[in-house]
UniProtKB/TrEMBL annotation:
Keywords, ordered alphabetically: Hydrolase
Coiled coil segments of this chain: none
SUPFAM superfamilies (UniProt xref): HAD-like
PANTHER family named in the record: 2-DEOXYGLUCOSE-6-PHOSPHATE PHOSPHATASE 2, PSEUDOURIDINE-5'-PHOSPHATASE
UniProt superkingdom: Bacteria
GO MF term set: hydrolase activity
InterPro entries in UniProt: HAD-like_sf, HAD-SF_hydro_IA, HAD_2, HAD_sf, PGP-like_dom2
Keyword Hydrolase: yes
Protein name in the entry: HAD hydrolase, family IA, variant 3
Protein's organism: Gemelliphila asaccharolytica
Pfam family, one: HAD_2
Amino acid sequence: MKIEGAIFDFDGTLYDSMGIWEEVGSIYLKSQGKNPEKNLNRKIKNMSLEQSAEYFNKKYNLNKTKKQIINEINEQIKTAYSEKIEPKKGAAEFLEKLKNLKIKMIIATATDKFLIEKALKRNKLDIYFLDIITCNIVGKGKDNPLIYYKAMEKLKTKKETTLIFEDSYFASKTAKDSGFLVCGIYDKYENKKRELKMISDYYLENFMGNINLK
């Protein structure tokens, strides 16, 4: 059946930005006078920003609201999204190809919307997407498929004609277990590359590759 809608993750999928998130938790906690645990990144890797804020508050006794913590982390990384991070090689051409195939596209991400907007507009990629849906907007992380269902509602497509692009095995498994089609995307920061490839209906080492979506 022809693919009619595409749901794209952002960090590590469309953009080379996962390196920022590898250290952001530790940098933030140090700025608050806290000593981050050694395996912090592994613990928060699959959390939404809201879930991470809750964890930081409880674990490190920050005595702040979730909103305060999220705003402070976003302020810390705003410059990177506004000025530095770049799309993965071939991403723009790939999006143009999907547009020519009349495939509707949307972003589903754990990162706050205003940051994604800055990066997309700077590279003139915002024109390809109907909207940006975030975990904070839907109130669930990617351990729950709700974000994919909300994105699909916006696309007005059916599950069997909607393809989800993800670099994360964790998020891809959530989508796959809910009956979605998944295209795994290689990213060097994903530790379960082999597992991701195994569960994916399609897999791309980079956006220069070809997949038949007709």
